[in-house]
Amino acid sequence: xxxxxxxxxxxxxxxxxxxxxxxxxxxxxxxxxxxxxxxxxxxxxxxxxxxxxxxxxxxxxxxxxxxxxxxxxxxxxxxxxxxxxxxxxxxxxxxxxxxxxxxxxxxxxxxxxxxxxxxxxxxxxxxxxxxxxxxxxxxxxxxxxxxxxxxxxxxxxxxxxxxxxxxxxxxxxxxxxxxxxxxxxxxxxxxx
Length: 192
Hints:
Layout: H1 2-35, H2 43-55, H3 59-72, H4 77-89, H5 93-106, H6 111-123, H7 127-140, H8 145-157, H9 161-174, H10 179-191
Helix pairs in contact: 1-2, 2-3, 3-4, 4-5, 5-6, 6-7, 7-8, 8-9, 9-10
């Protein structure tokens, strides 16, 4: 009986601590919001507020500040990238795509945007376009194993097993610790 009481007390203490932290964050956000009008010439303030809103699981509040930042700073690629990440986590893949398209339009040399757009396309089962984006990311930076791994997955979904294996082998060449690639290669070789 004492053990159950101690466990419940421990859970209550953790919940109370979380509530106190959330309350403190909400107070910080409120103070920050009151002074935002004086700092509306810097996107970092909007991003900071969006980040704080995400910490307290206020997704709508975070998106509000990201949307406001996009209106005021339409050429800040980072805002579109962050908004795309939030939308992707919400499984709003089309919204993520639109934001990544904006980020790529502003900075077509950032391989991360192509990789993330490839992820959104993959999630929408648009594998051929995902392969194009992973390939573009690889063209810009061919040292990241995850780009080859993800492209291999997309090729596998299109039953292009031979070329998928080539990408997974390249993944292992770049990162021998990626055991998942070994498993996928073994599986695909059984299918061929």
